[in-house]
Amino acid sequence: MKSYVRNMQITGLSISLLLFTLIGCDREQVEVLDDSTSVNASQLQASDESELILEEMINIGDDIYAADELSFTNGKSYNTGFLPSCALVTSVIDGNSKETKIDFGTGCELPNGNVLGGILIFNSVKDTDLATKTVLLTMENFSFNSVQIEGGATIVRNRSNTAGNPNSEINFSFKGIWPNDIVRNIEGNRTREWIEGYGSGDWGDNVILINGESNFTTANNEILNKKITIPLRREWSCRFIVSGTLEVVFEGLNYSLDFGNGSCDSKGILTKPDGTSEEIALIRFRR
Length: 287
Fold this sequence. Notes:
Blueprint: H1 20-23, H2 41-74, E1 88-94, E2 97-103, E3 108-109, E4 115-125, E5 132-144, E6 147-158, E7 167-177, E8 183-196, E9 207-217, E10 223-235, E11 241-250, E12 253-261, E13 267-271, E14 277-281
Antiparallel strand pairs: 1-2, 2-4, 3-4, 4-5, 5-6, 6-7, 7-8, 8-9, 9-10, 10-11, 11-12, 12-13, 13-14
């Protein structure tokens, strides 16, 4: 286990938040889907980037709360190396409430190249020993790779489900404003089960299974309804979803997006309403 002392600033830059450049995520780009199809590559890529932003915000909360829970349970301090030293963490307790702010300043670069700015705010009761805790996520002037993010989420954290794993139920609604002033919206629900790595003291072995449904509104106000039919597997050591299947409904037509068999790459197989399939790239912000 790695120990740490958390004051007003996290130290110890082992940070590994998705350190893909060192662990060798496959960045091979494959041919994108022809824009002549009803659901095109740019829509799916923008939708997937929105999902990444959501995932990373929730991951940050998971890391903060897990460190508190494990420190309380085991009497030791935990630092998983998930956040860099440029992320200033402060907590204020008022009665039975606790507010934790993670301030990324005007630009806090993570080792994977993602740059976060502004403040994420997590509010909950202060009782660390609760089996179930409701957390409210809000933000101030928050940005992710120059995408301005507005909105929030309600997170119900369960320290142990029937399988003995931590899991969260999330309802969210966010608006993203891309640098070219294109606005996109995403709202829906998620269930996340932390199936590997909890309590190890190292972010790199964390694995999450994701279920849920969401609506993504494109820049042209088109709506993609996305429902997870086979749980999506997210390994924190990779920025991509490595397996699982989405059902995508667009203008009454059903598509299926298969993320593969566990490889860390940007590839997905899109099956169209006529039964034909095509390989696409879900790049999650170009490097």
